[in-house]
Amino acid sequence: MHPWIADRTASFDSSGIRRVFDLAAKLKDPINLSIGQPDFDVPDEIKEATIEAIRSGKNAYSPTQGIAPLRQAILDEVQEKYPGQDRDVFISSGTSGGLVLAMLSLVNPGDEVIFLDPYFVMYPALVRLCGGVPVMIDSYPDFRLDPDKIEAAITPKTKMIIVNSPGNPTGVVASKSDQQAVAEIAAKHNIALISDEIYSRFFYDGEFYSPATDNPDTIVIDGFSKSHAMTGWRVGYVHGPPEVIATMLKIQQYSFVCSPQPAQWGALRAMEVSLQANVDDYRRKRDFLVQELSPNYELTSPGGAFYLFPKAPGQQGGEAFVERAIEHGLLIIPGKIFSKHDSHFRISFAASDETLQRGTELLIQLAKSS
Known about the structure:
Keywords: Aminotransferase, Pyridoxal phosphate, Transferase
Organism: Neorhodopirellula lusitana
GO molecular function, one term: transaminase activity
Structural class: alpha/beta
Strand order of the largest sheet: 2-8-7-6-5-3-4
Shape: globular
Cofactor: pyridoxal 5'-phosphate
EC number: 2.6.1.-
């Protein structure tokens, strides 16, 4: 390692997803089921609102906490969802920015942070970046959020629990009762609870539940990247206890400064745009994949997000199976990128029906030849 490079950077690797993207660039007409973003475009009315903001000169820094109309609109929504709670809101540079600020605000060197395995790739890297210790709770084979396992992992060094429902990479939705139990456990032990709700709009069965309902100190991270296909716009938001939000804002002043102002005006318009038709379409895609792949793959039907996390067929590991798939022109993500286990792989069904059909046919062929 170069002598100038900080030791903390050696505690985690670059995202393995980038390797798949590099492979994708070398293939002609790949069947791409690897991308973790919607395949529909940003609605025109959101684009027009952003263009108007640019043309009208709204191009400077916004206040660190975000433009007042957007912040107020989100705060009104939060107060309606959680009446009587003392919650503050700010606009972050995407949900990733919100996660970075939450970690920097709350995690001291040596603090332990609990989350499920499989996990979103950023969780262990960000914990280590802050000098913290990731504590990964094995959730195989059904990827359930088990309150008993969470509580058993708590030590005097535990500082935070992260819940991600619907989850990436599994798409699994934690039950209301399990989330309620974890919310109560966090409150009982005075542990920070982060609820990563970026996939909250992609919810296919029943009604969405947030642990903030039962634990008013829950820090909720959400945004517009997935719900409105605005992944490149970098507009997220965080709401939680005012003192925690103020600390996160203090760090944002010296790091991200603010979310891009024109994109915030687009996000304000996005709050008025329903994309339920897209969500219904993704539910249909989910049902198609589960029906087609279930006879040949061990899998848990996802209740949200746009991912499926099947077990690799036969005796091969997930990475070996993904390499076989890529050799046949199918791009999927090895499960070991999200896990200590090398047994599964991730499919994104944020793709056209034609791509899903081609990918499904190839996956069935690969399973039968394993």
